[in-house]
Write a sequence for this structure.
């Protein structure tokens, strides 16, 4: 049961990472606008395409590998948990330092915290 749940979490996360990655590559201005960030230069577009596009698609590939390969499942779950946990840490520090973000960014915080908690739970639950 736990292994099937682990696969499901990895696949759902892969879908989200794929969506963000494709949006980051094809529509960096849309991604930036949703977080109240302007892209005023080629360097800014490059950074969004690399981080929101390429990095997220790379994560998607690793998550898919983990969903379908028993040998890659635990490392992929660790990666997902640490990655989303790091995002949560950064967002919480920003809340303390910078104040409340817009609703979209707050929704990201909730999604990332939920994902990190699911990953941690899967890692701490004994295997089938």
């Amino acid at each position: 049961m736990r292994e099937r749940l682990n696969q499901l979490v990895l696949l759902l996360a892969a879908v989200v990472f794929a969506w963000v990655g494709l949006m980051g590559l094809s529509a960096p201005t849309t991604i930036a606008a949703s977080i109240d960030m302007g892209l005023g230069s080629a360097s800014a577009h490059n950074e969004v395409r690399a981080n929101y596009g390429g990095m997220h698609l790379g994560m998607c590939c690793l998550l898919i590998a983990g969903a379908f390969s028993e040998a890659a499942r635990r490392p992929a779950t660790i990666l997902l948990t640490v990655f989303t946990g790091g995002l949560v840490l950064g967002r919480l520090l920003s809340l303390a330092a910078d104040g409340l973000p817009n609703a979209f960014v707050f929704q990201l915080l909730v999604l990332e915290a939920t994902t990190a908690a699911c990953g941690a739970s899967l890692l701490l639950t004994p295997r089938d």
Notes: DSSP finds five helices and no strands in the chain. Helices lie at 2-26, 28-34, 42-68, 70-98, 103-124. The chain has one domain: 2-124.
